[in-house]
Amino acid sequence: MKSQLIGLLMNSWISFSLALYFHSGEREEKCIIEDVPSDTLVIGNYKVQSWDIREQDFLESAPGLGMFVTVTSPSAEVILSKLYGPQGTFSFTSYLSGEYIICFQSNYTRLLSFPGSRLRIHLDIRVGEHFLDESVLQAKDKVNEVNMRLEHLIEQIHHVSKEQNYEREREEKFRKTSEETNSNILWWAIVQTIILISVGIWQIKSLRDFFISKKLV
Hints:
Blueprint: H1 2-11, E1 17-24, E2 30-36, E3 41-52, E4 57-60, E5 67-72, E6 78-84, E7 87-93, E8 98-106, E9 119-127, H2 134-139, H3 142-213
Antiparallel strand pairs: 1-9, 2-8, 3-4, 3-7, 3-9, 5-6, 5-8
């Protein structure tokens, strides 16, 4: 009963993932931006399909096709740069909070690119999720299985807490930026008002001196 409850919790747990596909030229680099908290594991799975002119459809890629995967941190440091096959899995752990740039580029070496030739890249990114090895779980007894699932659930709770703290930091930073912007706008309005009053006083004084010099007053 307890293991069923844990399994239900794990199945209903929120998964922080991004699943999509996009098109790219044979030698074109495409990048996505992923906002990640610090000290968080990011796992990406991808599969590449190539456009077949005769079939007019995306088919499984030919052997030898690979993808260069490059990950750049918020501090502009390249933390991953590796050549994978037509489908694969990559992972990295963030050491800073912020936007990580994940780029993909094929290793096509053909001198000519035929019109209409393009690639479809299926991408699934999971942030802060550690997968359970079901084969290991089946080999263990029920008590160990429950313990492993509990540990996994606790790890997920820690990730949710970390994600909430990161969102709180971002909200606080945005609030400070808004307050500074409002303060700057207020001071700029005060400066403009002072300038307008000064110009008005100067114009009045100039007109008064002009009328006095012309003996019109």
